[in-house]
Amino acid sequence: MQLSQIDSLDMLALLGDKERFAASVEWIGKSLRFDINKTVSVFETTIRVLGGLLSAHLIASDYATGMKIPSYDNQLLNLAEDLARRLLPAFDTPTGIPFGSVNLLHGVDEHESKITSTAGGGTLTLEFGVLSRLTNDPIFEQVTKNAVHGLWARRSKLNLVGAHINVFTGEWTQKDAGIGTSIDSFYEYLLKAYVLFGDEEYLFIFQEAYRAAMQYLYNDPWYVEVNMDSAAIVWPLFNSLQAFWPGLQVLAGDIDPAVQTHTAFFSVWKRYGFTPEGFNLATLSVQHGQKSYPLRPELIESTYWLYKATRDPRYLDAGRDMVSSLQYGARCPCGYCHISDVESHTQEDHMESFFLAETVKYLWLLFDLAVGPDNLVENGPYKYVFSTEGHLLPATPQISLVREHCSYVGAFCRSVGYKEDSHASEIATDLLEANGSRFHEGQAHTGLPLYSTFESTPTAGLIKGFCPGLSHGQKFGISYITSVDMAYQHEHASDGKPTTLQSRSVAVVQNQSSDDSLPENDCDNLHESSEEGSESKVPLPSQV
Ligand code: DMJ
Fold first, then answer.
1. What is the mean pLDDT of residues 86-94?
2. Of these residues, 199, 254, 277, 389, which one is catalytic?
3. DSSP string, 501-537
4. Is pLDDT above 60 for 539?
5. Which sites bind Ca(2+) (predicted)?
6. CA separation (Å) from 65 to 68, 275, 292, 362, 366?
7. Helix 298-310 and helix 360-370: axis angle, to 10°?
8. How far apart are CA 399 and CA 422, in angstroms?
9. Which candidate in 7, 127, 184, 352 is catalytic?
10. Structural element, H or E, at residue 122
11. Are 490 and 507 in contact, with CB atoms under 8 Å apart?
12. Is the pLDDT reported for residue 470 higher than 70?
């Protein structure tokens, strides 16, 4: 139960439920301990527990959120730091890519598997980066960025990554490239790490990775899995984790394919009332052995993003259909149940913590947006980036100031006078060259955004909607216009000269606006993933 509570703290805050938010934060601060002899998934523990603690800390400690807890004294931040230090031994590998699991008390188990997934190794940068910036200890940011380097350095000639890799030898043990299972959030965190931290190296990697995905994996409107070296199709399957992709495309400003793909994915939902884990695109039927719907958020997440981008009421209709499915098909006595078979709608007594952290959150945000947004995300004091678990990570000055990046060794920084470590420099240079883009010399003294120094060649500018050199305010001020042919003139802040940032569907505009008792619960026996342990120890997740 404590896992769901941690994972849903920022949802309570988003709802404006001060009382439950404060009671939960206080209870977790008093009772949660990580000195337990338990081996946990580095990825799941990071995105659910670390992310949950950090987002709640950032809300509870800040008057500007309207949810500050007077008695709060950094308890959740201290817990987050303690947890992250217990995860650090996992990163001690020759490739920098972390082991998939680590024991919270003893470090990596002697017989721990050396095989991990790309998503598992490459989806840690946001939470660890935020922690570095809050604690002023760069280690967390360094190890997770190093892990991304470790993965990306082993990409194929086609700029594709496989699904599983040996963290000691760096050999791919599963060479199927795709945007879903085992890889999905690797792509997501490349773009979001750039958006949140302003670190352009992530953007360059994302550009390359995204372009390759659209070239080799996109079979309009579906996505397939291919061999990472030859691009030969291996799995003509829609898998439910792929459904986050249109949402990511909205963030990247690539709306048109997002709309097409969402329509296709939603047609699967409409056919069954839920999306099965796998849907075979050759037979147009549910993939054998992949019949379940474990209350996943991905399609709902994309629906929210597309509504936000287009305000097309069809996305509200889609949201209504999804609510109906959940209410009529998944509602059960103590919450919501997994659907073990989307064809028979059989329920299974299980509710993952991401149901409250993400599924419910994105639905709520969708409808709140429709009635005139008055919530922390749409109308709060900061722009927020959603973690892959739906946690709210604010672009506060402490977290996002580009100037601060330069104090982190290993971060890509073009500031004169700052010596990057040579490895990071080489990679950054490679990426710049590979990207076909270059920076004018002599412009990069401050580490601050460089407004007119980015020169694009035809291969650059992949991400429609924003480009390197824009300030954070501008990035978060991305505005979407529904007319597909509209060009948008943007008056540049620094020199007053008009700059046309043109896209068929997206335009960037500048900064638009800038006690120990648990709450009563009759359902304490609700099944949750990996939930075991004493009441004062957090039940930690294994890989989903
Ligand atoms: C969540 O834990 C996260 O969204 C993760 O990135 C993928 N799996 C689940 C939701 O399906």
1. 98
2. 277
3. ---SSEEE-S------PPPP-S-TT---TT--S-TTB
4. no
5. 388
6. 7, 35, 38, 19, 20
7. 20
8. 25
9. 184
10. helix 118-122
11. yes
12. no
* Residue-level pLDDT at 478: 39
Name the β-bridge partners of 454: 439
Alpha helices in 236-341 (DSSP H): 245-252, 255-272, 298-310, 314-325
Q: Please give the model's pTM, rounded to 2 decimal places.
A: 0.80
Q: Which amino acid is at 290?
A: Q
DSSP state of 328: I
Confidence tier at 231 by pLDDT (50, 70, 90) = very high
Pocket lining: 297 vs ligand 1, CB cutoff 6 Å: yes
| Closest C-alpha among 81, 119, 78 to residue 100 | 119
Residues β-bridged to residue 41: 101
The response to whether residue 389 sits with its C-beta less than 6 Å from ligand 1 reads yes
Atom of ligand 1 nearest to the CA of 48: 2
At 175, is the secondary structure helix, strand, or coil? Answer: coil
Give the C-alpha separation, 531 to 541, whole Å.
Answer: 8
Q: Is the pLDDT of residue 99 over 80?
A: yes
Beta strands in 373-514 (DSSP E): 384-386, 392-394, 438-439, 454-455, 478-480, 489-491, 498-500, 506-508
Show Cβ contacts of residue 372 under 8 Å, excluding neighbours closer than 6 positions: none
Could you read off the pLDDT of 247-299 as tens digits, one per residue? 999 999 999 999 999 999 999 999 999 999 999 999 999 999 999 999 999 99
> Measuring CA to CA, which residue among 333, 259, 345 is closest to residue 302?
259
Is residue 108 over pLDDT 50?
yes
pLDDT digits (tens, 9 = 90+) for 321-372: 999 999 999 999 999 999 999 999 999 999 999 999 999 999 999 999 999 9
Indicate which residue's Cα is closest to atom 1 of ligand 1: 389
Q: Which atom of ligand 1 is nearest to the CA of 358?
A: 4
**388 among annotated binding-site residues:** yes
Pairing of strands 454-455, 438-439: antiparallel
Would you say how long the chain is, in residues? 544
Do residues 442 and 434 lie in contact, with contact meaning Cβ atoms separated by under 8 Å? no
Q: How far apart are the C-alpha atoms of 149 and 96, rounded to whole Å?
A: 8
- Other C-beta atoms closer than 10 Å to the C-beta of 194 total 24
